[in-house]
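Exercise: predict the fold of this chain.
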Amino acid sequence: MQEQLQIENLTKRFGTVVANDQVKFNVLRGEIHCLFGENGAGKSTLAECIYGTYRPESGTIFFDGEAVEFNSPRDAIQLGIGMIHQHFVLAPPLTVLENIIVGTEGAKVLLNIQSAENKFKDLCASYELDLNGHATIWDLSVGEQQWVEILKALYLDVKFLILDEPTAVLTPEESDKLFRILNVMKSQGISIVLITHKLKEVMQSDRVTVMRKGRIVDTVDTKSTTREELTHMMIGSTIATHSEKGKIRSESSVLQIKNLDVTAPRGGYAVKDLNLTIHRHEIVGIAGVAGNGQKELFETLVGILSPDSGEIFLGTKEITHSSPAEILAAGVGHIPQDRYREGLIGQLSIVDNMLLGMHRSPKFLRGGFLEQKRIRTLAQEQVNKFEIVAPSIDTLVGNLSGGNAQKVVLAREFFQASVVLLANQPTRGLDISIADYVHRQLLEKRKEGYAILLASEEVEELVKLSDRIVVMFKGQFVGEFDSDNTDLEQIGFLMAGGQLKEVH
């Protein structure tokens, strides 16, 4: 096949940090090409250089045989290069059609809405997408929003598409559908670069390029390699699995949720009539696509939201309407789904982020003043324990890789918590080595006697870690499974809104 993209000796720096180091990379016309590597390996930086978001310090990008320079994404778009980011770039109040055409063709679109709508309908038909062009983004599921992002690219007639972690918020069925769409695009000659940390998806590509510490390790034909070989290339070693959890659950109840109702921000119920008991030495997993009440449930359990009705007990003590500070003091740790927006302050240092939520703790106060020496000692101990890669504890969290930023959250919450851990999507966006590290930490806390509530969109992750799995859909628990006796098809079906009685 003919090369569509070729990169020679590309280097990109951020200050003293070399994100891409003399990268050589090529993509063939009409192939699905995976970029695979740990967090901080340089994958997204390379993609943003191709898309024009970043300008490299040196090196050359060739597209369709011509050397090109991009001053902005607009330059890349004009050549037929599109990119779908992990975090969607959609305007929620606007309709599907408005999101697709705004900023694509300028004012002339406003004069020919019918033509734009016809093109939208043709694209939906070609790719078997069932979308209402007049529905607002607010009204769409997360999976449907992903299809809108793809249609935005197709509407621009892209011939080269970059997708950054596109299945992070999709059900297993939606992920399968995405790959069917990608293969249709491939058959039409569209080249696809897929950034993913999921080996299952990597193995569905034509070729895979492995990156480590800003450099290319190797590019191989996917059919000629194995998952083990790719993992070894990525981190230089083989990752151990921890599927053998062992049965250690105690009958001692730690966290009880009774008939819990929580109103959604836009009306209706985000959480409806939930009942759940979690015991010592137990991990209960919540399977479900984002936006089905998981976030509201976790925020209610830590006192950020107040329920409309129902009760929450920590042991024998009711904490239904307790404040976040009171719940924290009672021994509850919370790993939020978005580490940057909800778990960390990027403009503060590692040591300052370690202190969040504990600045009034008697552990660190003497005479009404913070004991800076003790705080810094603790922060350094946690950095060492959790293997956080950073120049010092004074490094701004916003300058850390996603994996190391997540470790800061884990270090703080594991230190604060003494009885319960609430972990909402703790491995989202992490590569397999750091995800494995998080898994080991959670299993260790389970062994110590913690009660853990774990929400994840990765069903295989839940099976690996959980003692029980409940499926959450539209604010309700719609099914429960023992992790040793699960049916992945049934779980995926429930996540998508199906009912078990319909499964044959």
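Check your answer against the key: The CA atoms of residues 34 and 201 lie 9 Å apart.
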